[in-house]
């Protein structure tokens, strides 16, 4: 466990949220999977009958909403996902001279964050991109966005699955507190849809695409009307195989299909639920205690957005009967699980209403396992 006590005076001065234009309801998604399954079962009737193949089970919109709280999700392109002949998005390859899709998404969120923080690219000297998947290994997506914005400084990518946003915010805090950067643009473009197996009823509904971004800087340089001062950060990882993707560039050398069985996102959802909820609640409780507070002092919890039942359980463990949707807002009903971006979306959409002096915690939990959190206080600037 690493607990980092940074000097005070570092703030998140603005965040940006870019939402893709296409939305897919549970009903649309289920219709596509069920048409696919019906055709698969019809075409393979003999093999299914002889036990050589298993029939594809049907999905249900009621199950999805009850089991997860998800009603809809945004994706960069819905067309191919809903085509039973395709069952994956269609995202045409771009020329090297064009911005790649993930950089384009990140750039849109970054511009919104800069505007909110009242900052220009010349005020920034470091860019960190954190995401569950990166569209390519190099050159870094962060350097591509740095170039597009004309930022002078350094940039790098990092991946810690669902905790990529909180961990990248923590790296920004480290950089500003050590003086290696004066203002850091943290960008989390989650392009999840290409890694979803839309033919698998257990996981076809879970993810959505989105991009968020944040500006981290010293309070004395902040030009926004108000900001959120970082009171403390906390990170923890424990190895687990319960959420895994084996998609790898080594598939070619291993003579295996890079998109074969188990190569896309897969999880043991029940186990994740059971193991991660108590870990996250203990992590958060101990963090606020280390900062001389109790959960009752926290006005808002911007929790990771994977499953509504998970969030309600954690909120109940932290706040008891005082747990409410107002204090632990939900965005996964509209956005689904956006991997690392969920808690930052919740922060972006549900923090402006709080007065100066309010306290809140951004927290992610997921694959790794990984848990990352930042305790914040709203300050006048
Ligand atoms: N329609 C109808 N029935 C279904 C469906 C469906 N779509 N899906 C499953 N069922 C069936 C199952 O087959 C099962 O049937 P049976 O009992 O006959 O075997 C029954 O319903 C119950 O299934 P589950 O036990 O799986 O259902 P749960 O109640 O556990 O709900 C959830 C499943 C929603 C997945 C739940 O377990 C959950 O949300 N767990 C938490 C998971 C979580 O938080 N994971 C974090 C992952 S995200 C992350 O870390 C980032 C990874 C990187 C990002 C990747 C981007 C692509």
TrEMBL record:
All residue ranges annotated as the Beta-ketoacyl-[acyl-carrier-protein] synthase III N-terminal domain in the record: 156-223
SUPFAM superfamilies the UniProt entry points to: Thiolase-like
Keywords of the record: Acyltransferase, Transferase
CDD domains: KAS_III
Matches recorded under InterPro entries: ACP_syn_III_C, ACP_syn_III_N, Thiolase-like
Domain Beta-ketoacyl-[acyl-carrier-protein] synthase III C-terminal: 289-377
Domain of life of the source: Bacteria
Protein name from the UniProt record: Beta-ketoacyl-ACP synthase III
